[in-house]
Amino acid sequence: MDDINVSTDIALCRKCGKTCSFSMIRTLPNASTLLSKPPPKGVKVEQDMMGNGMTLTYRRIPGVLLFLIPFTAVWSSISMMGLYGTQIRSGTFDLGQSLFGIPFLVGTIILVSIILFGLFGKWTVHLNRGQGTVFAGIGTLGWKRKFTYNRNSLITIKESNVRSNHQPLQVISVTTDNKAFSFGTIIKDDAKAFIAATLLRESRR
Question: pLDDT category, 136, cuts 50, 70, 90?
């Protein structure tokens, strides 16, 4: 406790002489306890054929799709048919009506994209000797980012700027040489904790 100042949120590591956020450190659950159990639902762990790296795959269909799919089907069909279907049937083009429908068209595209990712998308985290790659998408289409990690990396679970029901969502954070990399906002908390614990274990090897 002599190395922790709760009021200023600072913790000192006597071994390396560096300081970091105490609140960030204490948000990461005990890695050994988490990894002694089977991976949580939706998480698959695979070792590379050569044994040099590993891939964690996360895929879980969110329950919100039970509401989102029928809502999108009704809302989008009514708005799209009302704004553009009438023009197609009559063979005329109304510029004002078409421009008015653009927000509804964009909303439909966003909702359909969310549904498709929820049904068929996945997260993959590939770790190999200090090099990490995170991919989120469907098939080969999606978002991919690279990061580095080592024995001195600070790996935590912290609050993000994204909110749900006015509450901040948490992300997995990897800070190496003062460069922070965060991911996994929509990953379930139990899977997020397991992935963070695996990252911590691999960084210490």
Answer: very high
DSSP code per residue over 124-173: EEEEETTEEEEEEEETTEEEEEEEE--TT-EEEEEEEEEEETTEEEEEEE
| pLDDT of residue 29 exceeding 80 | no
Question: In degrees, to the nearest 5, what angle opens at C-alpha 145 toward C-alphas 55 and 151?
Answer: 65
| Cβ atoms of 3 and 12 closer than 8 Å | yes
Question: CA geometry: angle at 11 spanning 16 and 174, to 5°?
Answer: 75
Instruction: Give dist(CA 70, CA 144) in Å, integer.
Output: 30
Side-chain-facing half-sphere of 111: CA atoms under 13 Å: 19
User: What one-letter code names the amino acid at 79?
Assistant: S
The token duo for 83 is 């704004």
| Distance of alpha carbon 196 from alpha carbon 205, whole angstroms | 15
Q: What is the pTM of this model?
A: 0.78
Which alpha helices (H) appear in the chain, and where do they start and end? 22-26, 31-35, 65-80, 86-90, 95-100, 102-120, 189-203
- Band the pLDDT of 153: cuts 50, 70, 90: confident
Owner of token pair 């909110």: 163
CA distance 4 to 2: 6
Give the start-to-end residue ranges of the domains of the chain: 4-59+122-203, 65-118
CA distance 65 to 54: 30
Cβ pair 18, 7 in contact under 8 A: no
